[in-house]
Amino acid sequence: MADYQFGAGAGAALFPPGEAIEIRRSSSGRPRQLVADGNRLVSYGVDGRFTLGIAGGRRLAAAFDRPRCRVVVGDDSEPFVRDGKNAFAKFVSKVDPEIRPGDEVLVVHERGDLLAVGRAELSADAMADFDSGMAVKVREGVDD
Question: Rounded to an integer, what distance in angstroms lies between the CA atom of residue 19 and that of residue 76?
Fold first, then answer.
């Protein structure tokens, strides 16, 4: 599923063979979260798609070359996005051209640091062209 959603190699990056992955389930037994070393990698949505946690975002960022799965912002947005605030199109400097609305994305600083994970609200072209509007609905910011 991860390879389908994020591209080839995502499954091995998120869930390396031989690593102990804890599956947290709902009261009905449905898988809800996949956790490694106490950190949430992904949540499994009722729609069958993964939503990234910071730990999963770090794994994808390390595995994929830039700009894959990335929305890049500069200094103006960094403290806000890192704090879990949404990323706006006005501040997007680069974006993976394959991103579509609804995709799970990594929000990174121009220097490459992971700032947050979230859901793209605009297409890559729209993020690059628009001067207003929410580009990424941030789910979780990096607080370190």
Answer: 38
Q: Give the residues across from 116 on adjacent strands.
A: 107, 141
Output the CA–CA distances (angstroms, integers) from residue 133 to 60, 91, 136, in the order listed: 26, 10, 9
Q: Is the dihedral of CA 115, 108, 41, 39 positive or negative?
A: negative
The amino acid present at 67, given as its one-letter code, is P
Q: What global pTM score does this model have?
A: 0.93
Q: Once rounded to an integer, what is the mean pLDDT over residues 91-116?
A: 97
Check residue 143 and give its pLDDT.
Answer: 82
What pLDDT does residue 75 have?
95
Q: What's the token pair of residue 144?
A: 């370190």
Length of the chain: 144
